């Protein structure tokens, strides 16, 4: 069965510390991979995407993600977190032209 | 603003009433998706259109739900005889098939509260 797992429901990091959010997927074929961010009361904003090629992808707001085929993972990273990064982060996977399958999300809290 | 828009942004209704939401996609996008997001969960797929054709419906889309995209532009999602379990954020997204990927652009959502 197709699935997307974000193992961490909540993560707390100090401002300026590094961040890694985990995402694992189970799909019949290698899907397209996305990370979205959602601030309270807002819609989803695309941070970055992976389709093929270089397995390290750069996104907006200083985020990056690494695709590891052998581990079926697509973890999101940021070297130095800012207070404004506090939000809900969703990993999503999908095949071309089809609906996205989202993980349950990881809530990020940033402490001073 | 050339992004995806949704109206209304908030809707409060009593159980048993019918509600209708509207989504206006990015103008050149031919695919339109509806998702539902409940508290503490990620968005779940409901249905999607390519132009005016409804190509796929999720098991989540009960008989009380109906979606249309009559002219291949805006879409409406109607829920009949609402139940408290329908309370959720309803998200719309659009994309274009000419792009060799599945990047979907999301609207701000319509938050439904059923009392």
Keywords:
A: 112 residues, mainly beta, B: 115 residues, 7-stranded mixed beta sheet, globular
The structure class of chain A reads mainly beta
How would you name the oligomeric state of the polypeptide chains in this document?
A: heterodimer
Helix content of chain B: under 10%
Main sheet overview of chain A: 6 strands, mixed
Q: Can you count the helices of chain B?
A: 0
Category by helix and strand content of chain B: mainly beta
Count of distinct strands of chain B: 11
Q: What is the H-and-E element order of chain B? A: EEEEEEEEEEE
Mean pLDDT of chain B: 92
How helix-rich are the residues of chain A, as a percent range?
A: under 10%
Strand content of chain A: over 45%
> What's the helix count of chain A?
0
Please state the overall shape of chain A, judged from the principal axes of the Cα atoms: globular
Amount of beta strand of chain B = over 45%
Radius of gyration of chain B: 13 Å
Task: Provide a descriptive summary of the structure in words.
The complex is a heterodimer of chains A (112) and B (115). Chain A is mainly β. Chain A contains no helices and twelve strands. Chain A starts with a strand and ends with a strand. Chain B is globular and about 40 Å long. In chain B, 37% of the residues are buried. Chain B is an all-beta fold and 115 residues long. The chains are: A mainly beta (112), B mainly beta (115). Chains A and B meet through strand 5, strand 6, strand 10 and strand 11 of A and strand 4, strand 5 and strand 10 of B.
């Amino acid at each position: 069965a197709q699935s997307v797992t974000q193992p961490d429901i909540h993560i707390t990091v100090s401002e300026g510390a590094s961040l890694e959010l985990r995402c694992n997927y189970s799909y019949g074929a290698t899907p397209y991979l996305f990370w979205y961010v959602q601030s309270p009361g807002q819609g989803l904003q695309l941070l970055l995407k992976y389709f093929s090629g270089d397995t390290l992808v750069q996104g907006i707001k200083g985020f990056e993600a690494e695709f590891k085929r052998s581990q079926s993972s697509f973890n999101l990273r940021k070297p130095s977190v800012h207070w404004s990064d506090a939000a809900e982060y969703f990993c999503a996977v999908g095949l071309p032209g089809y609906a996205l399958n989202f993980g349950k999300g990881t809530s990020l809290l940033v402490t001073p | 603003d050339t992004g995806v828009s949704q109206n209304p942004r908030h809707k409060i209704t009593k159980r048993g009433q019918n509600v209708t939401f509207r989504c206006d996609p990015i103008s050149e996008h031919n695919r339109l998706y509806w998702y539902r997001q409940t508290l503490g969960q990620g968005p779940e797929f409901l249905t999607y259109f390519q132009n005016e054709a409804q190509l796929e419906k999720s098991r989540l889309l009960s008989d009380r739900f109906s979606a249309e995209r009559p002219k291949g532009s805006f879409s409406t999602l109607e829920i009949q005889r609402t139940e408290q379990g329908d309370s959720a954020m309803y998200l719309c997204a659009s994309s274009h098939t000419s792009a060799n990927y599945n990047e979907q652009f999301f609207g701000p959502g319509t938050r439904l509260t059923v009392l």
